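Supplementary Note 3. Input sequence used for the single-chain structure prediction.
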Amino acid sequence: MKKILLLATGGTIACGYTKEGLSPQLAVNELLHYVKEYETFCSVDTCQLFSLDSTNIEGAHWLKMAAVIEENYDAYDGFVICHGTDTMAFSAAALSYLVQNSKKPIVVTGAQKPIDLPVTDARTNLLDSLYFASNDKAHGVNIVFGGAVIAGTRAKKERSKSYNAFSSINYPSIAVIREGHITFYIEDKEKVSGETVFYHALNERVLLLKLIPGMDASVLNRLFPFYDGVVIESFGVGGFPEYGEVPFYAEVERWTKAGKVVMAATQVTHEGSDMGIYRVGKLIKENFGLMEAYDMTLEAVVTKMMWGLAQAENIEEFRELFYKTINHDILFV
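The predicted structure, written as discrete structure tokens, is reproduced below.
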């Protein structure tokens, strides 16, 4: 029988009603009372990390999650983290970079409805997560939600209320779970070699900037002192405007010459960027040190930048780290 450590951070799954609105109320041991079926296939120990709405999760919490997993790594066969849905994709991506090459499963899950309601997805999601974490084929960081198993770097919350809230972006789901049966679409545990590596630092001086028609690059000038890297959500396959008093190429050049990272991504959820197609993207990428996110999710781009900036000593080392595929995060470079 597999031994699983269940970590709780709060989130809707543990929420109760208050006069101010829903907020996390249930402790981790109380969650287990609703899924007694787990006793037939695994044993579970518990750890209450936080009791937070996931809106309040930040880098320090990701580091704490990774640290607790590291401290207990040898004692357990798998790990399940109960988490709020709103920033779950960010947390799963961050953990993918903080805990690499893991042959043991690290599952992130949660719910759209509290676990103590008569009708809820919470009980199914938690039981599925414990079941997946107990499977011999499972490994690495994944989200288990709505019957889908999604690589931690490929998940995005696309629905605010429906039970199938998360989708796997630009990559297949790892598996599906139906009535206690797991069907794997991707089986690659045998490719994981070497030691599990834990990282202990993030650089949170990272900004995500969404372009809108009419915006010029003067906004980057104002933000320059406060950030070491910026991800710019451009239009379509990728391109920056040429209008305005301050052209984007000038600010991109200023940032990159100062050793800061400028990353172009796309506002379009599926199929990724390709800055080389149009003049508005090709010239600025070729001439001013701009990097490109390609098929990565924004959640993965942001958290990988935080991780990479904390590890790299210079921009060349950062580029090498960023374009190394980790937990299926990038296919096209």
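The mean pLDDT is 95. DSSP finds nine helices and 18 strands in the chain.
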